[in-house]
């Protein structure tokens, strides 16, 4: 079953993206570089609770 997650910018702490992931295949927290419209650049985004 896929669960909904929220990605948060590590620099400005705004929650920008909602995604789904499969907890069975990826149990660890997700980290990816995405565009933040508040920082106006590509920054690291981490999964929040």
From TrEMBL:
GO terms for molecular function: structural constituent of ribosome. This is Large ribosomal subunit protein bL33. GO terms for cellular component: cytoplasm; ribonucleoprotein complex; ribosome. Gene3D superfamilies: Ribosomal protein L33 (2.20.28.120). GO terms for biological process: translation. Keywords: Ribonucleoprotein, Ribosomal protein. It comes from the Bacteria. Belongs to the bacterial ribosomal protein bL33 family. NCBIfam families: PRK00504.1, PRK00595.1, rpmG_bact. Coiled coil: none annotated.
């Amino acid at each position: 079953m896929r669960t909904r997650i929220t990605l948060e910018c590590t620099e400005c702490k705004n929650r920008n993206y909602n995604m789904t992931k499969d907890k069975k295949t990826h149990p660890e927290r997700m980290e990816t570089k995405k565009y933040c419209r508040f920082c106006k650049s590509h920054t690291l985004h981490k999964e929040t609770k």
